């Protein structure tokens, strides 16, 4: 997985048909997804439950791009090996999820995955500064995590710009997660983001039987960034 800072759209399967993940993933990849974003929630760190390592492992074989796994769970450390075994390419943990994020990130890399750290909207960019040499990705949450379809929190855009200058030339992706659509995507891309997660804005209007809207939605986000 060579590093590059070009724009990547990562559809979140949180907005897909949960009974048909295999075909949903094939459909969004065929329609232009760059990565597949997989949201793991525990009903404790966030007020919602999704799925765990066995499901992630089962969908892995349907993903031909990058499996980007976003853990909204606490604790993280007991599950790192299970997500490595499930085939995660990138494993992202929240900085708020426990007292030893440094150890968690080392363990993720030690298990052979790229390491990401996610920040809730209430957490400042400075939380990442001590972690810059340990991460491959920082995920800036632009909604409070737990649900798809929430409104983008505009105050987070300055955090993206702060992180972009903090990261400098380091090979660290800046990912945006929450409320990304053709209106908000240009704001975060201009501030320095290169990975845009989008759930409802990609899956709306389409289905596995009629996947063309997925492609139109992905292109609309790309075009909005190009038009700036
Ligand atoms: C929210 C999840 C997101 C979610 C984004 O807690 O981490 O990945 O799927 O959904 P949208 O794009 O609909 O805001
Ligand atoms: Zn997510």
From TrEMBL:
Substrate binds at residues 12, 70, 146-149, 177-179, 199-200. A divalent metal cation binds at residues 37, 39, 70, 177. It is an enzyme of class 5 (isomerase). Its EC number is 5.1.3.1. This is Ribulose-phosphate 3-epimerase. It holds the Pfam family Ribul_P_3_epim. Keywords: Carbohydrate metabolism, Isomerase, Metal-binding. It comes from Thalassococcus arenae. Belongs to the ribulose-phosphate 3-epimerase family. Binds 1 divalent metal cation per subunit. HAMAP family: RPE. GO terms for molecular function: D-ribulose-phosphate 3-epimerase activity. The lineage of its organism: Bacteria, Pseudomonadati, Pseudomonadota, Alphaproteobacteria, Rhodobacterales. The active site is at residues 39, 177. The gene is rpe.
């Amino acid at each position: 997985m060579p590093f590059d800072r070009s724009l990547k759209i990562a559809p979140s399967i949180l907005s897909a048909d949960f009974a048909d993940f295999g075909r949903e993933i094939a459909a969004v990849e065929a329609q232009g997804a760059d990565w597949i974003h997989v949201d793991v929630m525990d009903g404790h760190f966030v007020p919602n439950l999704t799925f765990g390592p066995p499901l992630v492992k089962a969908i892995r074989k349907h993903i031909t791009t990058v499996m980007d796994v976003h853990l909204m769970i606490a604790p993280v450390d007991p599950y790192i090996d299970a997500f490595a075994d499930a085939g995660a390419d990138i494993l992202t943990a929240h900085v708020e999820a426990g007292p030893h994020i440094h150890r968690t990130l080392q363990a993720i890399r030690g298990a052979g995955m790229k390491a990401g750290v996610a920040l809730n909207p209430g957490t400042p960019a400075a939380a990442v500064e001590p972690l810059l040499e340990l991460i491959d990705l920082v995920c800036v949450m632009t909604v409070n995590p737990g649900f798809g379809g929430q409104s983008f929190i505009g105050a987070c855009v300055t955090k993206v710009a702060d992180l972009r200058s903090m990261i400098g030339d380091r090979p660290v992706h800046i990912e945006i997660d929450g409320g990304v659509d053709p209106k908000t995507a240009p704001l975060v891309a201009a501030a320095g983001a290169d990975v845009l997660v989008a759930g409802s804005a990609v899956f709306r209007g389409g289905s596995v039987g009629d996947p063309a809207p997925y492609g139109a939605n992905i292109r609309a986000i790309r075009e909005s960034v190009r038009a700036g």
